[in-house]
Model the fold of this input.
Amino acid sequence: MSDPIDIKKQIEDNQYRRYVISVNSGQESLVIDHLIERVKKKQMGTEIIDYLNPIVREVLYKKGEKVIKERKLYPGYVFVKSKMNEKVWYIIRNTPGVRLIVGAEIRPIPLSEKEYQDMVDYIQEKNARAEFAVPFQEGDVVELKDGDFNGMKWVITEIDVAKWMVYVNVEILWRNTPVMLTFDKVERVS
Done:
């Protein structure tokens, strides 16, 4: 069995590092609120300085309307930036909703700065794409999802992002006729 003094040395780290905390799924924001409250009560604001529940925005189209939905990137996990010592470890482990600090049983293992930065870059890129996302490009082959032409395939000739519409040429009586369709009425054919 390890000597308590050895364990103290193993978890003592005065550098700010990013740690992954496993929490009860669905309680990520609640755990962060509990941690902030506990840190404030114990006056440990210089020990734990940042909290993150990574959320990305995704675009859905319902009834022709663009809907942005938020999705947790890592359900059941939150990230903290902190120093690590017995007191910090105790506060985190004993916060309601926390299951464990990811790492070895006796020593939390921090994320590398590259791992953390890659995650932050991914979140920023995904969120930026959600703001300007258009699910189609000119030249894409799309299939009508319902209506009289259900199942028919056409090539997109134009996209009107402001109205969330695509234009396709439909052959009617041996002539190409442009038809406007909302994004939710068609889906891209792979």
DSSP finds four helices and eleven strands in the chain. The chain has a mean pLDDT of 85. Helices lie at 4-11, 28-41, 86-93, 113-132. The chain has two domains: 4-132, 141-188.
